[in-house]
Amino acid sequence: MLEKNYTLEWLDFIINVTLNDAKTDVSTLSSKQLETIVEKAQEEKDRHISFLKHQSFNLDSRRKIQLLIRQYHASLVMLLDQAYENTSRTQNGNSMLRQALESISASLDELLGFVENRFHEYLSLDERAPAAYLSQVKREMLDRLELLRQELFVRVDNRTLTDIVLQSLNSFIYDSEKRPISFREVFYKKELLAGLEKISQEQDQTTLHGAVVELLVYLNFNSRSFMNYYTQKLAQKINAFGAVHEKMTELLLSYKQFNQMHRKPTVKLNPHHADLKKVLGNWFAQEITYLEKKHQWDVLPLQNQQQPSKAKSDPFKIMCFLSVDQIALTLRAMDATRVVKAKSLNAVIQTIAPYLSTPRKEDLSQESMRNKSYAFEQADKAIVIRMLEGMINWIKEY
Hints:
By secondary structure, the chain is mainly α. It contains 17 helices and two strands. The chain is 69% helix and 1% strand.
């Protein structure tokens, strides 16, 4: 029904017939006619964008919107392919026709970009991208990548990291002709490039390295070379500390920072490799276990006679990267939902609190925790919810 009311029929006719030298004697087209066609193509582009925006609000089901968007996307890709083919066959002497075809291709590319950016969740991302479309994407990315070399990569203070990113993008641009490329991979590389361009606008050079790492974590850049780089960088930082407990503190802090980095769901650089979050999470767990065991076997000098008995009486403490308020909220939720069973919330706090510490407090006040378990700030609720969501995601992916 929608297709009969509004189609790409005019653009289809212009590209497949009027400007196709296999079907039309394009040399007979005057400069005025070509100028009129280009202006009309611009109007068609704007009209289709307006139509798609309107339909996205008016259609009453996701299935209808998905059908419309997929039809538009498939048709635009084929039209763009034909437009590129027409341009490649244009004789060098006919500059007006070449310019007209390039202008129309630019309008089609802009319309296609609008569909991909605005409605990407409705597209079938695992379909193979056509060769001509892919060729145009690579040409655009190559120009943008060259600017990034000058504006960003020379300012990032680590050549190894920028080489990892460059290798991934260069492999897509230069080596991907040997294998089929899906729209999913195209969109991923486009988003990676756009993220790097945004980072390049930052003025503070000291933040660039961290911003690139956060972008790669956000996009699940599960390249083995990047994961090796990330863990080696952390290991160097942690091993710079002498005492085991200092290393543990730094390792736990790094783990907390890693878990707090945002991640975009359902994206992955390499679909055949494990998620970056799972691999690095396992690395952190192994390193924490190793340092815990090493700390247990460390031999401390005997300074006085009172120290051994004191060490025996002190309970083993687990470092928790939540505040006292957040721990109190968590314990109250566990008690209220019967995850744990005790006589009262006070009994839960009395039993668990002696075995917990935080980066700010070695010994937690049970009285303070009890008082804080009755009133919470929204910020503390948000942090606890994010922590629980992170646990849920980890369990799902395990």
